[in-house]
Amino acid sequence: MRITESKKITDFFGCNVFNDGVMQKYMPRETYNELKEVTDLGKPLNKELANKVAKAMKEWAGDMGATHYTHWFQPLTGTTAEKHDSFISIDKSGNTVLEFTGSNLRKGEADASSFPSGGIRATFEARGYTVWDCSSPAFIKKSRNGAGILCIPTAFCSYTGEALDKKTPLLRSMEAINREGVRLLKILGVDAERVTANVGGEQEYFLIDKSVYEKRKDLMYTGRTLFGAKPPKGQELEDHYFGTIKPRVSAFMKELNEELWKLGIMAKTEHNEVAPAQHELAPFFTTTNISADHNQLTMELMQKIAKKYDMVCLLHEKPFAGVNGSGKHNNWSLVTNTGVNLLEPGETPYENAQFLLFLCAVIQAVDDYQDMLRISVTSAANDHRLGANEAPPAIVSMFVGTELEDILTAIEHDIPYGSKEKELIKVGVHVLPKFPKDTTDRNRTSPFAFTGNKFEFRMLGSSASISGANVVINTAVAESLRQYADILEKSTDFEADLHDLIKSVIAKHKRIIFNGNGYDESWIHEAESRGLLNLRSTPDCVPYYLADKNVELFTRHRVYSPTELHARYEIKLDGYCKVLHIEAQTMLDMVWKDILPAVSAYSKELTDTALAKKALSADIDCSFETDLAARISALTATAVKKTRELEYAVMGVKDVEGTLEQAKYYKDVVFSAMNELRIVVDELETHTSAEYWPYPSYGDILFSVK
Ligand code: ADP
Ligand code: MG
Q1: String of b and e for 31-43 (b: at least 16 CB within 10 Å)?
Q2: Are the beta carbons of 255 and 311 closer than 8 angstroms?
Q3: Which atom of ligand 1 is nearest the CA belonging to 451?
């Protein structure tokens, strides 16, 4: 369906989703009610019900023109996977029929041998299972020729039950925070049936013209430019941020929004970002699991739709050196089934106590599990951003705003707060002094910022799934809540104990709070003196996966088993090595095949010209040609030397034992050699005629979409 101007969003919003309205239409009332109990209250799904739901889904999918179904899952590659099966089958009498049973819906068997498993599953027993996640609605993906595929969101696990995907641990972490949240609220006297983490993920991306993309091997093979001299104009003037959106981009955004809305994804905000050719899309927040699914679909659609407009959508964290990279802001909050946002400061002493306790739970979680938060966003690509002068630094800290920090300090030291009233704050007795909400939204350099009634975790990379980060936030906060519940459960003087608990958490974990400029050099020293971690790269942080306290956290809350953690450790390191290996090989290919021949040809043209001039008359000044030819030849010689060094560096990997050691080697030796080569080649580019340079320049790429 092409959406015309006259069509209202509400007329087609969610039209490709097996949502509540569709279920009610296609299922008998009791089936619908039974399924609701499964999805909303987590009751088990029996075979009979699965058959009934499958029947309804098949009918709906047929009416929607779908010919195939797929178990849609999220393997540890960070992207999504699907294998299509048509509904077509043959019955006992040999007639062609359409078939989709409860067992087709509930469970699938996928040959998993080509997905990363971190050693969990040997290839000879490569069976993997996909299992229906009925908490995320099924949907229909339309291909360009209009054929539809019924997509069933599923979890993916090994024959022996270990999670081989991003969804399973996320669902487990949601269960953990629900369990501990409900438990603590009960102690506080609140009868909540469920506590849910909500997430709104802002997605940054670049759009460039297809023609320039196709001329850059580095973009095609690695998603980022490996060479490229600085253009005369970058993002200095900051004239792109929130600027007028170009017509082609605007047309792209319109179609993207429509396709997202059809899938029930609440695309809300769109704007130009800081760097030229950079944009952002933010959806309205929803439950973490659905938010993660939606973000995967958003990235997929961005790439697909860009192609229709002869553009390429770059989701890499750092496609261009010298201009901002792309990230994702993960806005996270906790809400009860009765609609209370637990991170919203309240009006009454009681609500304030609840707010402070949940605030403390997050402060403690971020402090205790800084290492895991850092790991949850790490990748070779995101390492280029974190710590550079644009994104949050690699040091995890928290911003709460000065007003809230003053309140916390007043509680910690039992000192009066506020310039006028000067009152002592007793938790559970006093109303918190009002603090202006909008001042909590202005620190853009903080990795983890309190923004009034939610936290914004800003370290996530643009291409990565949001699941990993939310697994850590949910589980770490669940752990704080568990500890508080254990203490308060035994309390005999509730108000006093609550006050003391909050006081002690502030005293112990305030070191993680930092309201200053996270880009400032002095913060690095300050953070160090506070004992905060500064894990600059993937090989630096990944070993923390296996730290005892982290293994204990995830096993206690049944989010990752030790085997699953170990698998993720291996996969992160292995992925890091592979990315660097491909980048190094691409550089070598570009240099030998394109760059060196180009500069050689150009210097020949220069020397030919000089010779021709000289032949004409000895008096003609040839200094431009001869000087430049000399300069280019000297740079070329250095480039060849650096290329050979990179070759040796890459070859040296085979002598390094162990994944962690290899990852370190890639970072210290291969990556350094890549950087050195790039410096010389970029200098060569600056001196070479555009006619000879084999690739579109940064200027050509960044301003390619007119
Ligand atoms: P910005 O960070 O650019 O100022 P906004 O404050 O408008 O943007 O919100 C950014 C994201 O935060 C959106 O995806 C929005 O839906 C989400 N968001 C807003 N409130 C909440 C909440 N209570 N819980 C989770 N996410 C939220
Ligand atoms: Mg934001």
Answers
A1: bbebbeebbeeee
A2: no
A3: 6
How far apart, in whole angstroms, are the C-alpha atoms of residue 683 and residue 686?
5
Q: Check the CA dihedral 225-231-235-241 and report its sign.
A: negative
Q: Higher confidence at residue 235 or residue 567?
A: 567
Taking phi over 0 as left and psi of -120 to 50 as alpha, with beta for the rest, 430 belongs to beta
pLDDT given for residue 681 in this prediction: 98
Residue 574 has pLDDT above 90, yes or no: yes
- Kindly indicate the confidence band of residue 387, based on its pLDDT and cuts at 50, 70 and 90: low
Report pTM: 0.94
Give me the mean pLDDT over the 559-586 stretch.
96
Which residues lie below 8 Å from residue 364, measured CB to CB, with a gap of 6+? 480, 505, 508, 509
Tokens encoding 610: 């000089």
- Count how many residues are written for the chain: 706
Q: Does 443 contact ligand 1 (Cβ within 6 A)? A: no
Ligand having the closest approach to the CA of 441 = 1
Q: Which residue do the tokens 């396709």 mark?
A: 259
Q: What is the pLDDT of residues 196-205, one digit of tens each?
A: 999 999 999 9
CA distances, 442 to each of 408, 438, 449, 450, 595 (Å): 19, 7, 9, 10, 45
d(CA 165, CA 116): 9
Residue 123 DSSP code: G
Q: For a ligand 1 pocket test, name from 241, 331, 450, 455 the mutation site with the most ligand atoms within 8 angstroms of its C-beta.
A: 331
First to last CA, the chain: 28
How buried is 565 (Cβ within 10 angstroms: 0-12 exposed, 13-18 middle, 19+ buried)? buried
- Report the atom number in ligand 1 closest to the C-alpha of 280: 3
Q: What angle do CA 584, 589, 592 make, to 5 degrees?
A: 120
275 close to ligand 1 (CB < 6 Angstrom): no
CB 84 within 8 A of CB 149: yes
Helix boundaries (H) for 237-390: 247-262, 288-308, 349-368, 370-376, 380-383
